[in-house]
Write a structure and sequence with these properties.
By secondary structure, the protein is of the alpha/beta class. The protein is built from eleven helices and seven strands. A seven-stranded mixed sheet has the order 1-3-2-4-5-6-7, with helices on both faces. Helix 4 runs antiparallel to helix 5. The protein starts with 10 loop residues before the first strand and ends in an 11-residue tail after the last helix.
Amino acid sequence: MPLPFDLSRLHVEVTGPEDGPSVLMVHGWGSSARLMHPLAEALSGMLRVYNIDLPGHGHTPPPPEPWGVPEYADLIRRYIDTEIQQPVLWVGHSNGGRIGLYMAGDDRLKRGIEQMALISPSGVRPVRTWHYHARVALAKALKAPFQLMPGPARDAGLDWLRHSLVWSWLGSSDYQALDGVMRATFVKTVNLFVEDRLPRISIPVLLLWGDADRAISRHQMDVLAAQLPDAGLFVLEGAGHYGYLDALGAVAGGILSFAGAETAAPAAA
């Protein structure tokens, strides 16, 4: 069982009318509630917005041990149940979309989520390049000698390897910027994919993606649109991975329309 995380340690910005429909905003990896504040502000005129800093991001301390998506999902479910206490429209960006999809495809976790608006969500396997596969093969080759050693020597050798310059070169920029519990959490989180859960997600899903996004591909978005039973994909022209900043008006208008609070919506793909 994961070590407990006290809900009082979560930093959450709550704005908007108390009697408005509830929106839970979940940022991406390495981001925070602060970066999503412009979107929260645009929605809070009509919606009750809960803009959360996940553990290890923004003003919320790291988890007590390396977490993956299941641990983040359990924490957020507890927050919805105990603090919001009503169904939410989940607004997730990138990894916040991955966590939302994971929860919505799980009978135990999906309660409390009645709609999702996902901006460049992760969680669908990308089409990998030869360069990626070469780096993976090299990493496995570097680890192989240490894995043949007895327990203490193996652990010491692998720890040395993980802190070596060549290992840092093999990792992504996000990986290189981390250490300790958050580096291990990053590895566990980004290596979870949700394609097997998509057909079980019955709630309406609004997908928003910028056609200049270099982190999430159109292929990944098309997989989501095809496999989710009730989803619509909208393309934000000229927007990048942070489409909610690049096309704030279109994203806010689309979410308000999706929530039944406004008539404006972005152009369909």
